Amino acid sequence: MQAFRRVTLSRLATIVALLAVVVFTAAASARAETKLRWKFKAGDKVGYEMGMEMDQDMKIGDMSVGMKMTHRMDMSWDVKDVAADGTATISQTVNRVRMDMTLPPGAGAGPIKYDSKAEKQEPGAEMIAPMFDAMVGKPFTMKVTTLGEVKEVQLPKAMIEAMSKTPLGAMNPMFSEDGIKQMFKQNVLPLPEKAVADGTTWDSTMEMKGLPFGKMVSETHYKYAGQEERGGKKLDKIDVSANTKFEKAPNAEIQLDIKNQESAGAIYFDNKAGTAVESSQTSKMSMEVEFGGMTIEQDVTTKTTLKRVDPSKSAREL
């Protein structure tokens, strides 16, 4: 118990945020063959609501503690230009971020609540507010091909400078310029060049180096599952699963060892309109974390969602 209490609140919040991104990054009948393609038109405006719910159960020595976090992010796309090959230049803006985190007993603080639209943040939010404040309302551009390949991400200088001055940005490459680019790239569904039929599979891989524990390799596996009617439309269903690997760095401050993991979900794609409509994925991971002379056994369950919405739609409340 005494050893756990020596962990400062800021360091604990850093570990929670780190693992949230890791997990996060880490849910009918078909026509004979279908070519799936993103389709863009200059002037199009699209809204997306991204959500994450995470439950963590931790065992530190003889003590067991729990932690919960809910995260919502509202984003909008503004298609500025479309090249002859269909590649679009898109301006993306994070319009609102909300987070509700319940820390375990002994962490030295109560629940942490953050809402980027709040006039005044609640006590405790000062640890995470600088990171999100640096991101909200600052448009950046990216180029996306018809296969969902994000070829360029250009972050505004003001965002980069602000992020580098936050505690997480200064300590963790995951919240650096390259790290933020990688995270936004993960939000765009990659599609295969070839036509698909029931059972067709494809993969994508993301690597992130320089993390406190070494390098993370996240592999996402996609499987075409035919068409399904949702909301009065026939949508193409893509089953999705993910696998995360860590390559340990010598003398790293944090050592992570994944004992077990599983992940399953589905993405629904409107191929006629050429856009992702919604997705949901649930992941479970058991790991062992060595940090500050302690060994923490951790079970994490995460549900992530993404839904296309009218960009003028009001954000949901937590």
3D structure, described in words:
The protein has 318 residues and is an alpha+beta fold. The chain has a single domain, classed as Roll (Lipovitellin-phosvitin complex, beta-sheet shell regions), CATH 2.30.230. It has six helices and twelve strands. Strands 1, 2, 3, 4, 5, 6, 7, 8, 9, 10, 11 and 12 form a twelve-stranded antiparallel beta sheet that branches. The N terminus and C terminus are likely disordered.
From the structure above, extract its key features.
15% helix; globular; 318 residues; Lipovitellin-phosvitin complex, beta-sheet shell regions; disordered N terminus; 6 helices; alpha+beta; twelve-stranded antiparallel beta sheet
Gist of the model:
With 318 residues, the chain is of the alpha+beta class. The protein is built from six helices and twelve strands.
Q: Would you report the number of β strands?
A: 12
- Tell me the series of helices and strands, N- to C-terminal: HHEEEEHEEHHHEEEEEE
State the name of the first-level CATH class. Mainly Beta
**Structural shape:** globular
Structural class: alpha+beta
Topology:
Layout: H1 2-5, H2 9-25, E1 45-60, E2 63-82, E3 88-102, E4 112-115, H3 129-133, E5 140-144, E6 150-154, H4 157-164, H5 167-171, H6 177-185, E7 201-211, E8 214-230, E9 233-248, E10 254-270, E11 275-291, E12 294-309
Antiparallel strand pairs: 1-2, 1-12, 2-3, 3-4, 3-5, 5-6, 7-8, 8-9, 9-10, 10-11, 11-12
